[in-house]
Structure formats: structure tokens, C-alpha cells
Amino acid sequence: MHRVDAGKFAESGVVVTVYSSRDSMLKALGKSLSGVTRVAMEYSPENTLTRVSRVDAGTVKLALSMSHEVVSSADLMQYATHQWTPEQLSDHRRTDDKLGRIVNEAFAHAGEHLVKGVTEFQVAEFIRSRFREEGIESPDGPIVAVNANATDPHYEPTADNTSMIKRGDWLLIDLWAKGVAPGSVYADITWKTPTIRVPSCWGSQADRVARDYITSRGYGEYFTHRLGHSIGLEVHSEAVNLDGFETHDTRNIIPGVCFSI
Question: CA 243 to CA 260: how far, in whole Å?
Fold first, then answer.
């Protein structure tokens, strides 16, 4: 390495060959490669693996000019720098557990807010707030995408570019994060649901919950009426009744209807 940078590695334990001028660099390189027939470099033949191809073409040609075969260091780098330690595996599993909970919470959050209205960006903000609470982090994301937006693998909603999530939408959530400690590794989850639905409930089911509770307290014999009735243009209207006693109302309780209790 150049002499001006040598101090950065003084305590690293790495063996460093220092040069000052280009001529001294070529001489030092020739000495280091003397007798070597094969050199592994961070390049990929025909740039097949772009992720590991970092050496410029000129440097590869320089090595070849010294009559050396140049091969890719991709496998060497994988063995040397990318095998997880047991601690990293445990850290990954902890983060993955957190992401599993958060993605379920995010889908539930979207479903619970459909009636009042919820956007992709608002769900993404909910996820980011949960990251902070769980002590995990990510510099970007998550992806929260409905319908056609889910076809873009790098889509990320913003406050100014977001879509409403509506009942029946296809919703995809892709979230990734890692712990905040040095050396933490990522976990990554992509889930989708073909339909976001408001949890359904029949009128008779609502009646049953209330009736079972009152009965458990010893007052069931006095509960001689349905739980509630539809209210609209008439005081007893035509929408769902909260009734599993006088009748068995199997209509869903839907947004926008009114009933007594």
C-alpha cells in the first residue's frame, strides 16, 4: 500500500508492503509475485458475478503482464469473511423471531385500519416504529406494496408517493433488519396476503358473546331479548340485528350500519 496509508494498518497484524512511487510499486509487486503462477483477485470472468468483481481491468492486465494466471477470489472470500459464527447465528434467529412478530402485527394493523383508511406509508412507519421498540435497525425499507406496486422489487412508499390499502387488495410486505451490536447479521422476511379483510362477525355471534358472559355470571335466565336491533330510516330497520336468541342472524356486521345494544 502507499506510504501515506501505512499508519492505518500499523496495529492490524497484517503484513504490509509499502511503496511510494509507481516504479517502487511495480518493483514491490513483482517481488511479491515472484514464483507465483496463479493470483486470486476480486474479479469475475466476463463479470459473471458483479457483486465480487471489484478490481479494474487495468490492474488485472498488470498482473497478467507479469505472466501470471488471474483467477477469481470469490470462493476464497466466502470462506474467509462470510461464514457466520455461532454468536451471529443466534443473533440472526433472535432478529428473525422479532421480524416474524412484526410482520404479523403489520398485517393486523393494516386490517384494523381499513375502515378509517390506511396507506402503504403508514404501515411502513408502523413497522419502523416497531423496529425501534425491538432494538433492531435497517437503513432502508421496508417495502409495503399493494397490487401493481408489488411487482416492483425495489418499491418503497414515501409520504408523497403512497397508495391506499383497500379491502380485497393484494398486499406484500418485505422487511429486513439486524441488531444494533457490532457484527450483527440481517434477517429478511417477505410475506404477502391476497386479500386484506376486516374481521367478519355475524350479528348472532355478537349476541352469543354477550349472552355467554351474562350467563356465566348467573343472569342468563333474565336475558330474554336479543342483544340489539338494526336502526335506520325506521327504529327497527332492515340491516343486521345482534340476534342469536329470537332468530339466528348470519349477516355480517359491516361498516356504516347502526344498531342498538
Answer: 11
Contact 124, 161 (CB under 8 A): no
Nearest to 130 by CA among 117, 116, 144, 115: 144
How open is the CA angle 86-92-95, to the nearest 5 degrees? 145
- Taken as a whole, the chain contains a residue count of 261
DSSP secondary structure code for residue 202 in this structure: B
Any residues with CB less than 8 A from the CB of 123 and at least 6 apart, and which? 106, 109, 110, 144, 165, 173
Nearest to 109 by CA among 93, 126, 133: 126
Distance from the Cα of residue 16 to its chain's centroid: 41
The pLDDT tens digits for 223-252 are 988 999 888 787 788 889 999 999 999 888
Give the closest residue to 45 by CA, choosing from 37, 57, 33: 57
Residue 169, C-alpha cell as written in the block = 387488495
When pLDDT is averaged across residues 101-122 and rounded to a whole number, the result is 94
Angle at which helix 120-134 crosses helix 86-112, to 10 degrees, equals 140
pLDDT tens-digit map of 35-74:
888 999 999 998 888 888 999 999 999 999 987 799 999 9
Quote the pLDDT of residue 91: 93
Q: What is the pLDDT of residues 183-233, one digit of tens each?
A: 999 999 999 886 555 567 899 999 999 999 999 999 999 998 899 988 878
Helix then strand count (H, E) for the chain reads 6, 8
| Amino acid found at 173 | I
Do 144 and 190 meet the contact criterion of CB atoms below 8 Å apart?
A: no
**CATH numbers and ranges of domains, the chain:** 3-81 (no CATH), 88-193 (3.90.230.10), 203-259 (no CATH)
